[in-house]
Amino acid sequence: MIAEHGTVSALESLAAQWKNTPPSWSRSDDPCGDDNWEGITCKDSRVKKLDLSYNRNLGGPLPPSIGNLKQLVVLSLNSNRFTGAIPASLGRLSNLTWLDLASNQLTGNLPTSSDGASGLDQLVNTLHL
């Protein structure tokens, strides 16, 4: 199954700004296809989980395009080399129930959800920063 176009564009934007993304991110145009991208879990052609924790060489900024992964339930980027401000666009991830950004060099506060969605201000699971 082919991932939604907006999702693929968002992931390609992340890959373009990050250093040392997993090799599988450049081998295929479809993160949900037969050759899944490392750290990506899909359901019904939608990216539900992005877990690239403990990739010590993976780093860069968290760009606003991360907020375009609208079906994301789990975002785990623990113990990497991410730097800069936490983007306000994370507040658009209304399906997010798990967020782990610990052990990076990120600054700023977690954004609130937009349009009254549950999102970041009502995460179901433990929040790690």
Automatic annotation (TrEMBL):
Statement: the UniProt record of this protein carries the keyword Signal: yes
Domain of life of the native organism: Eukaryota
Membrane topology: Single-pass membrane protein
Domain (Leucine-rich repeat-containing N-terminal plant-type) ranges: 13-42
GO annotations of cellular component type: membrane
Keyword tags: Leucine-rich repeat, Membrane, Repeat, Signal, Transmembrane, Transmembrane helix
InterPro entries per the UniProt record, alphabetical: At_inactive_RLKs, Leu-rich_rpt, LRR_dom_sf, LRR_N_plant-typ
Localization annotation: Membrane
Keyword Kinase tagged: no
One Pfam match: LRR_8
PANTHER family in the cross-refs: OS05G0588300 PROTEIN, RECEPTOR PROTEIN KINASE-LIKE PROTEIN ZAR1
Name of the protein in question: Leucine-rich repeat-containing N-terminal plant-type domain-containing protein
The organism of origin for this protein: Ensete ventricosum
Lineage of source species: Eukaryota, Viridiplantae, Streptophyta, Embryophyta, Tracheophyta
